[in-house]
């Protein structure tokens, strides 16, 4: 609400701000955070429990642990006389079984692995009083805690010792707490139905990681390909080998330009790699003055199982590319052991090649899904045509064509099928990048036409072609408009073991917007239901090793040998920028029972130096930052620039949408001298809008801030100055470039997060520092809580 201008208006704003702060600090209902004593999510026991039956459907005990608790019950209850047994055995069982509660970590104060665990679960005051009055001796049986035993005869002090600070989790009240027990064991979702998942960082420092594959040979290694043409070997312990698995960077055609679609684009291991050592790759090359895509075969080195023999390359297929974009890039082997190749339509815009474009021309290899047979090709032709290819007898079509009418399918996958029923096995999912309006997900089938350039998503693109009833094109299972994202990245149907609630969920993303999405098949109707995927907020991801943020540009998805799901993204979409990170997707609402997902990798002979993995990304506790002013004004809050446009929507990774053209110019019309402590964000030489290198104005000059001590609290001060209510990430190491033309003005900044400017924080003397511009600090801000985008 807009108040009157002047002192009264400002006073009203201060009152409103005080109320806002009071509301923010007021106690709120507990946000459910199920967690076991091993600091992992609860699970559904594989069999019923004989002793702690209350937790037989969902909790933290498997039958083995349940049996151990029963044996302990027998030992302890044998020390009770007949009267005590009748009065106290039930209490003894209840207290022992709290180890099986889905909230065991809370009951035992064990959310933090570094703190000591209680010997008796946290009790509610009234229950503790009841047990003390009738069965106080069981406390001595359950615990050897000397301090607790010393309090045994003082009910008030003992119960104070045993109660929890967070009364939502005390026993037995938590059993009736609707907030804690509603939807327990289901994937966490916010009020709008956005599924909240978490991540594990598994690799970093990569230059546009375009693919991650496994050898399916029992070693559980994975191999990550960079767009520049290098492929790296990662061992099951997370370490990377110093020697690349493959290096074709001198042959690969790409550039440092952001968004260049050429480069090393795909890799796949032969299904019988364990026996024949063959690997197939897809990359861009320049031959003479022609740009081509090349499909090559390599063999494993006879002297090193973690490197390909670079002299073994055989070119299986080359296709001329008329333009530098729409290069396709996916390679897959199906259950039929044939090689599937996914090509783009040749580039430019609107598939302008020929009468109907390359995609509709079955005599062209571009804009297609190809299927060839590369088995037993050591003698004779490099590949053969599978006899059941759909156009093998059509003289007007290339026999390699399996499906057509595709624009630029970027990342496809075969469904492994349900782990138990195998339902869905062999379905081929693809994300097909759109032109001007829509992105789509297709299930590719033999001989089908997927509509491009007649259709884009469900909409007509070429109206004349679209009206041709003889096309008989297949519609996508899902399409989304460009307000949601402008470049789909196809994903996988989750069929792993560790996150059973995700089984059957097709998870994919968008390269431009950073949006993570999912589709779930409704078996009754055959339709696919859409759900957004957000990063977990609150305590959802507060488990050891988990994070809740990622870089915006989602490049690719992957499965490991066990079927767990990963994706790769970067903060700088350039083939030469080492900003790529690989993340594993984790659902913390429910895990598999202990031991079910254990794998025993076959040994790997390593000849190269191992480089241990060091994670760099951090968990972000996203809390709303109070707005410093509530009145409407054209004056920038606390020295920042005025916000003259509606709020932008933040990407789930914390990146903000681009401002409208002209917004910068409107902001620059004000010629007022900046206040001391005013801040601005800079990104690659231009003003950042919600993200960038932090620059501060002090005593007539702009300068940078060193990242020594730089924290999310300091970033919160900057974001609030610029009118953003949320801080997503405090960045370091000059992530948004070095401000070498400016002096470093602040170092050793320490903030509580409530200061109005960085100058109110603790810091070294202005202009004094012990750092370089390589340590320039930055921030990523948002107008909305990132996970709710």
SSE arrangement:
Blueprint: H1 7-25, H2 63-77, H3 82-96, H4 104-107, H5 125-135, H6 137-142, H7 146-150, H8 155-162, H9 178-181, E1 195-206, E2 209-214, E3 222-226, E4 230-234, E5 240-241, E6 246-247, E7 264-269, H10 273-276, E8 278-287, E9 290-301, E10 304-321, E11 330-333, E12 339-342, E13 368-372, E14 401-404, E15 409-414, E16 428-432, E17 438-444, E18 455-456, E19 459-460, H11 463-466, E20 478-481, E21 488-493, E22 505-510, E23 516-521, E24 528-535, E25 553-559, E26 565-570, E27 580-586, E28 610-611, H12 663-668, E29 679-683, E30 686-687, E31 691-698, E32 701-705, H13 712-721, E33 726-731, E34 743-746, E35 778-782
Parallel strand pairs: 1-24, 32-34
Antiparallel strand pairs: 1-27, 2-3, 3-4, 4-6, 5-28, 7-8, 8-9, 9-10, 11-12, 12-13, 13-14, 15-16, 16-17, 17-20, 18-19, 21-22, 22-23, 23-24, 25-26, 26-27, 29-30, 29-31, 31-32, 31-35, 33-35
Helix pairs in contact: 2-3, 5-8
Keywords: Disulfide bond, Glycoprotein, Secreted, Signal
Main location: secreted
Region (Disordered): 624-681
């Amino acid at each position: 609400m807009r108040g009157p201008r002047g002192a009264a208006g400002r006073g009203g704003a201060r009152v409103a701000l005080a109320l806002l702060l009071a509301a923010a600090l007021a106690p709120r209902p507990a946000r459910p955070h199920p967690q076991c004593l091993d600091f992992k999510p609860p699970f559904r026991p594989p069999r019923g429990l004989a002793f702690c039956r209350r937790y037989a459907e969902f909790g933290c005990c498997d039958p083995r642990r349940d049996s151990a608790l029963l044996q302990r019950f027998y030992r302890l209850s044998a020390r009770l006389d007949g009267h005590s047994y009748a009065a106290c055995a039930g209490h003894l069982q209840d207290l022992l079984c709290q180890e099986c509660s889905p909230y065991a970590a809370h009951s035992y104060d064990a959310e933090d692995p570094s703190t000591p665990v209680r010997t008796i679960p946290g009790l509610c005051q009234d229950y503790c009083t009841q047990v003390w009055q009738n069965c106080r001796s069981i406390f001595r049986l359950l615990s050897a805690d000397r301090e607790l035993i010393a309090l045994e005869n003082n009910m008030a002090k003992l119960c104070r010792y045993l109660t929890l600070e967070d009364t939502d989790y005390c026993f037995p009240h938590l059993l009736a707490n609707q907030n804690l027990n509603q939807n327990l064991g289901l994937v966490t979702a916010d009020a709008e139905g956005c599924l909240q998942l978490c991540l594990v960082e598994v690799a970093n420092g990569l230059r546009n990681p375009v693919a991650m594959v496994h050898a399916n040979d029992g070693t559980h290694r994975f191999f990550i390909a960079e767009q520049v043409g290098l492929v790296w070997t990662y061992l099951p312990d997370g370490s990377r080998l110093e020697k690349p698995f493959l290096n074709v960077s001198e042959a690969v055609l790409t550039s440092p330009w952001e968004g260049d679609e050429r480069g090393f684009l795909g890799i796949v291991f032969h299904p019988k790699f364990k026996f024949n050592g063959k690997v197939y790759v897809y990359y861009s090359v320049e031959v003479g003055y022609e740009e081509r895509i090349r499909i090559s075969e390599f063999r494993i080195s006879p002297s090193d199982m973690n490197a390909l023999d670079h002299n073994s390359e055989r070119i299986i297929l080359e296709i001329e590319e008329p333009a530098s974009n729409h290069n396709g890039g996916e390679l897959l082997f199906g259950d039929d052991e044939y090689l599937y190749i996914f090509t783009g339509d040749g580039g430019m815009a609107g598939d302008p090649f020929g009468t109907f474009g390359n995609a509709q021309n079955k005599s062209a290899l571009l804009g297609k899904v190809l299927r060839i047979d590369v088995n037993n090709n050591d003698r004779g032709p490099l590949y053969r045509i599978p006899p059941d290819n759909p156009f093998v007898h059509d003289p007007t079509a290339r026999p390699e064509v399996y499906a057509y009418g595709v624009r630029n399918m970027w990342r496809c996958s075969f469904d492994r099928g349900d782990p138990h029923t195998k339902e869905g096995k062999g379905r081929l999912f693809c994300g097909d990048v759109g032109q001007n309006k829509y992105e789509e997900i297709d299930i590719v089938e033999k001989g089908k036409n997927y509509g491009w350039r007649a259709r884009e998503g469900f909409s007509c693109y070429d109206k004349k072609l679209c009206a041709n009833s003889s096309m008989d094109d297949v519609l996508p299972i899902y399409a989304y408009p460009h307000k949601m994202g402008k470049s789909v990245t196809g994903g996988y149907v989750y069929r792993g073991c560790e996150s059973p609630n995700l089984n059957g969920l097709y998870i994919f993303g968008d390269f431009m917007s950073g949006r993570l999405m999912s589709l779930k098949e409704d078996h009754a109707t055959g339709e696919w239901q859409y759900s957004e995927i957000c990063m977990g907020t609150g305590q959802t991801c507060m488990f050891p090793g988990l994070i809740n943020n990622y870089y915006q540009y989602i490049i690719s998805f992957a499965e490991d040998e066990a079927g767990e799901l990963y994706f790769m993204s970067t903060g700088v979409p350039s083939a030469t920028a080492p900003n790529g990170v690989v993340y594993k997707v984790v659902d913390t609402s429910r895990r598999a029972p202990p031991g079910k997902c254990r794998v025993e990798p076959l040994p790997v002979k390593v000849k190269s130096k191992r480089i241990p993995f060091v994670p760099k990304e951090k968990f972000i506790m996203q809390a709303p930052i109070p707005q410093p002013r509530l009145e409407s004004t054209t004056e920038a809050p606390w020295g920042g620039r005025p916000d003259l446009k509606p709020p932008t929507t933040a990407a789930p990774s914390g990146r903000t949408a681009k401002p409208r053209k002209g917004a910068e110019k409107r902001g620059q019309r004000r010629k007022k001298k900046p206040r001391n402590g005013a801040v601005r964000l800079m990104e690659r030489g231009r003003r950042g809008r919600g993200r960038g290198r932090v620059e501060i104005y002090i005593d007539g000059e702009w300068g940078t801030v060193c990242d020594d001590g730089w924290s999310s609290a300091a970033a919160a001060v900057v974001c609030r100055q610029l009118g953003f209510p949320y801080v997503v990430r405090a960045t370091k190491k000059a992530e948004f470039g070095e401000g070498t033309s400016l002096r470093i003005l602040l170092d050793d900044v320490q903030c509580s997060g409530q200061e109005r400017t960085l100058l109110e924080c603790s810091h070294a003397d202005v202009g004094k520092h012990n750092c370089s511009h390589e340590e320039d600090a930055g921030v990523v801000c948002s107008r909305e809580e990132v996970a709710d985008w």
